[in-house]
Design a protein that fits this description.
By secondary structure, the chain is of the alpha+beta class. It has two helices and three strands, in the order H-E-E-H-E. This is Proteinase inhibitor I2. Keywords: Disulfide bond, Protease inhibitor, Serine protease inhibitor.
């Protein structure tokens, strides 16, 4: 009887934690931070911004770095974004350490 209560408690606690993880249904690409990379080209790419629940553009340099999505449509459809900024090549996201 003494072991029954702790076993029930642990089982309930484990079930609650699994429920939290199961609520996370977005693919990994939706959590991927954009990185411009080390090359100097200027390709417009997109990432999902969790705070604003929108897909935003950034400039990718053409090599290395991190490119979550090639198109705004792919970002919106994959991450179920409720809001997206209009495509604007002048507005870019820069990685840490990139020159201003």
């Amino acid at each position: 009887m003494r072991l029954l209560f702790p076993l029930i408690f642990i089982t309930l606690l484990a079930g609650c934690q699994n429920g939290t993880e199961a609520g996370n249904t977005l693919p990994d690409a939706c959590y991927q931070a954009p990185e411009t990379g080390m090359c100097k080209a200027a390709f417009q790419r997109y990432y999902y911004d969790q705070e604003s629940d929108s897909c935003k553009s950034f400039t990718w340099g053409g090599c290395k770095g991190s490119v979550p999505f090639d198109t705004q449509d792919a970002c919106v459809q994959t991450c179920n974004a409720s809001n997206s900024e209009p495509a604007n090549p002048a507005k870019t996201y820069r990685s840490k350490g990139d020159p201003q």
